[in-house]
Specification:
Elements (H helix, E strand, L loop, with lengths): L1 H5 L2 H11 L3 E3 L12 E3 L1 H20 L6 E4 L4 E3 H6 L2 H4 L1 E6 L6 E3 H9 L8 H10 L15 E4 L3 E4 L6 E5 L4 H14 L6 E10 L14 E11 L16 E5 L1 H4 L9 E4 H6 L6 H16 L7 E5 L12 E8 L2 E12 L1 H10 L5 E3 L7 E3 L2 E8 H12 E2 L18 E2 L10 E5 L4 H16 L4 E3 L5 H10 L4 E5 L1 H6 L1 E6 L5 E5 L3 H9 L13
Parallel strand pairs: 3-10, 12-14, 22-23, 22-24
Antiparallel strand pairs: 1-2, 4-9, 5-6, 5-7, 8-9, 10-11, 11-19, 12-13, 14-15, 15-16, 16-19, 17-18, 20-21, 24-25, 25-26
Bound molecules: glycyl-adenosine-5'-phosphate.
Length: 530
């Protein structure tokens, strides 16, 4: 394990994810596959689905006032939509190519890595000037660089037979189909402001150098909420639920000075609200909720901070952008963005399409009025969340034969993933591949599956090796049917985190596992360690 500790964590985790069947490079059997795209294999897909389910439960199903409606838009959008949204003209990154070896890299990333320059908010011209000024060369061959260009990140396609084909793009964010469907949802769901429309689905960006595994991909999944409200009543009905939530925050003032640029303060949502840091309590509400959500996924409080983006980093129409940054081995990384997009999107789509994207406001004793709602948008990347969760859940194994320092030390690398999102909640094993054991184990496996609990059955190999395999993919519990099961109707449950085992009645396994996964009870509440 000593060798793996020297490697950057990104390589350690990505390597494990490949080897343990979480993910594979898309079409890897052909020339190592397509860069920037990953397929999710059974273990990884289960983890990804569990994160999406946890998000849905946390943000969508738990919200009854206001309501949040979920949609599923097509991944292809006609060009008109993306002209209106501004993506065709300005959704680009600065690209620089080497005159000698033709390597192509992101110019801002090159400045950050070669001269340690902060590039947030810099224009293409400023990046070009800095490259010349610092005499930055090609990272591959040291050759001279061509002028910096704006490279549009959208993947173009055509829809229909060639003569009558229509220009279209793979959507670069899920948000745009929400704006296009806004009026239909508003009318058919008889929605009233404030309300939200959300979507979980794929987005595509032709990233210049997707070299950071699941952090920067060309095809990835977003979970976005567009929260619509009356600009004259910018209040979230559930604000009180988060007002005492503590967060770490980097304010704009702090970033203004080089010396303190990275300093965050611990503050409650309401204190930040009182200090005028948030433009309204809807954005404050989502900042608090997001901080709570990522803690529930296992990211420690001190490894997260919200950064109030600088004015030059925010689009002209935005009245506030806050990014949740998570501390990784490679540094602080943006994991989600919460933007107050005002009425910009509904206005531009209204202008370009001719549709009336408004809402009725009827206050008692007043005439009905029409408003174009304002929007706060929390935007999450699923794979980035998944990676951050795994890097924080990674526990290196100890050297073979070395003395344990902690009770949980073991000789294999493992993932301490939170039980409710772990790929499998439990493994079910017969101690040996004997009919009197396998029959009961399969019956237990089937009973757990029928309850919709993700479980896996494995009867091959030594039991110790099977426990290690369970740990390696982050499985919190293992049930084993042994010879005592036939005598007294009990099975063992092994707890991943402590490696302790207890015996419980076979018929109680379903409710016990549910209670453990929901963290309603602790492991040792169900029995004495064997
Ligand atoms: N609708 C707003 C929007 O899309 P964004 O900051 O461009 O905002 C939101 O993206 C989130 O989507 C990011 O915080 C990140 O988690 C994820 N994301 C963006 N680009 C990504 C990429 N190339 N690979 C993986 N995740 C990405």
């Amino acid at each position: 394990m000593a060798e793996s500790k020297k490697k950057p964590m990104l390589d350690v985790v990505m390597d494990l994810l490949m080897r343990r069947g979480f993910i594979a490079q898309t079409a890897e059997i052909y020339n190592n596959g397509l860069a920037g795209f990953f397929d999710f294999l059974p273990v990884g897909m289960q983890l990804k689905q569990n994160i999406e389910k946890a998000w849905r439960e946390f943000f969508v199903w738990s919200s009854v006032d206001p309501l949040i409606f979920e949609i599923q838009g097509a991944v292809v959008l006609p060009e008109e939509v993306l002209i209106a949204s501004g993506h065709v003209s300005s959704f680009s990154d600065p690209l620089v190519a080497c005159k000698q070896c033709n390597a192509e890299v992101r110019a801002d990333h090159l400045l950050e890595s070669q001269v340690g320059m902060k590039t947030e908010g810099m224009t293409t011209q400023q990046i070009q000037a800095a490259i010349m000024d610092k005499d930055v060369k090609c990272p591959e061959c040291g050759g001279d660089l061509a002028p910096v260009e704006d490279f549009n990140l959208m993947l173009k396609t055509e829809v229909g037979p060639s003569k009558n084909s229509k220009r279209a793009y793979l959507r670069p964010e899920t948000a745009q189909s929400i704006f296009c469907d806004y009026k239909r949802v508003y009318q058919t769901m008889r929605a009233q402001l404030p309300f939200g429309i959300c979507q979980i689905g794929p987005s595509y960006r032709n990233e210049i150098s997707p070299r950071q595994g699941l952090i920067r991909m060309r095809g990835f999944t977003q979970m976005e909420i567009e929260f619509f409200f009356d600009p004259e009543e910018p209040t979230h009905p559930d604000y009180d639920a988060v007002k005492n939530t503590k967060i770490n925050l980097i304010t704009r003032d702090v970033q203004a000075s080089e010396a303190t640029a990275d300093d965050s303060i611990e503050i409650t949502i309401d204190e930040a609200m009182q200090q005028g840091i948030f433009p309204n309590n809807i954005q404050a509400y989502f900042v608090g909720k997001v901080f709570e959500f990522y803690q529930s996924l296992g990211i420690p409080f001190e490894s997260m901070r919200f950064r109030n983006l600088l004015k030059e980093e925010t689009p002209f129409y935005s009245m506030g952008n806050f990014d949740l940054e998570i501390k990784l081995d490679m540094g602080w990384k943006e994991a989600i963005g919460i933007a107050y997009r005002t009425d910009h999107d509904l206005l531009v789509h209204g202008e370009h399409s001719g549709a009336k994207l408004d809402a009725d406001i009827q206050k008692s004793g007043q005439k009905l009025k029409k408003v174009v709602p304002h929007v706060v948008e929390p935007s999450f990347g699923v794979e980035r969340a998944l990676y951050c969760v795994l890097e924080h859940a990674y526990r290196p194994g100890i050297q073979k034969g070395a003395e344990k320092e902690k009770e949980s030390d073991r000789e294999w690398d493992w993932f301490q993933i939170q039980p409710h999102i772990a790929p499998f909640s439990a493994m079910v094993y017969p101690l040996m591949k004997k009919p009197e054991l396998t029959e009961k184990a399969i019956a237990l496996f089937s009973a757990l599956k029928k309850e919709g609990i993700p479980v896996f059955y494995d009867q091959a190999g030594q039991i110790g090796r099977r426990y290690a395999r369970a740990d390696e993919i982050g499985t919190p519990f293992c049930f084993t049917v042994d010879y005592q099961t036939g005598e007294d109707g009990t099975v063992t449950i092994r707890d991943r985190d402590t490696m302790k085992q207890i015996r419980v009645p076979l018929e109680d396994c379903v409710p016990i596992l549910k209670a453990l996964v929901r963290r309603e009870k602790k492991f040792l509440d169900f029995g004495e360690p064997i």
